[in-house]
Amino acid sequence: MRAWLCVLLAASAAGCSASAGLPPADGARALELVRRQVDFGPRVPGTAAHDSCGAWIAARLRAAGARRVREQSFADSVPGWGAVRLTNLAASFGPDRPEGGARGGALLLAAHWDSRPWCDRDPDPGMRGRPLPGANDGGSGVAVLLLLAEAFGRRPPARRVDLLFLDGEDLGTLAHLDGFFRGARHLAADPPRARAELGLSPEYHLGVLLDMVGGRGASFPREPNSVLRAPAAVAEVWETARRLHEGAFVDDVGPSVQDDHLALNDAGIPTVDVIDLSYPEWHTSRDTPAALDPAGMAACFRVLAELAYRR
Asked: What is the spatial distance between Cα 303 and Cα 15, in angstroms, rounded to a whole number?
């Protein structure tokens, strides 16, 4: 890895040496993948922009050389929203069997790909009824997964890695909390059937959910629900980040988060949430690519690549 790239991605020289042999973390490429999603328009379920972006994600996964790409479409009735059709997407890389690497077990990497129908936290009341651009909230996690897919296509990971793109994460409100996490809840409602439909592994060593990982100065403390539900997975992810000298992964406990990882844990997948809640543009019309910095996405890429390629 060239020195200028390490500086660009906010990695120390020690971090570069620790990552020797891993694919380079191209933060500029991740930011471009965010822009491509935002260019479709808000990816609100039931819109043409949503469907076009979903087809684009699936096409990119196939182009990357995934062993399989599966789509799980289902009709849902969302409290406070109404009838809608949602689609979870999954792709598999590496060995077909769950085993792989010294630690064994498959790895699940997830993000939500839909965007919120409202900018309900916008400082301008006139903007609050408009749909969210979703650059960080949705777009950044998807960009990291697509960047990993490209790397896995060039060099298969040491263990089986499944990438999961969840739909319907952000349709809830304070009045209708059940509107959140619809895709993940659909998976958790009948895990064996849902895993078979998506071609997912029957078992996982651990799972990592990425949500809002592209903000300026992003930091990722240990999320309390993750610590409670998947303590060994949290320990492994943050220890990996420490060995790679990834300072964005803060060795402190942050605020509790309700997110897709709760349903994934309910489905028997020990999943941690990597999330930056300090993002000031959260749920506002300013959640655009202009508000992002590639460093956080690059840090997530390096940690997840280390988990995927380490034997």
From this structure: 11
Do 224 and 255 form a contact (C-beta atoms < 8 A)? yes
Tell me which residue range forms the domain holding 168.
3-309
Span 266-297, pLDDT tens digits: 999 999 999 999 999 999 999 999 999 999 99
pTM higher than the cut 0.70: yes
Residue 135 CA to residue 139 CA, distance in Å, equals 5
In the Cβ-directed half-sphere of 210, how many Cα atoms lie within 13 Å?
A: 32
Token pair for 32: 């471009």
What are the Cα distances from residue 121, in Å, to 125, 179, 200?
9, 17, 36
Number of compact structural domains in the chain = 1
Distance CA(50)–CA(40), nearest Å, equals: 8
Show the beta-strand stretches assigned E in 94-135.
106-112
CATH number at 109 reads: 3.40.630.10
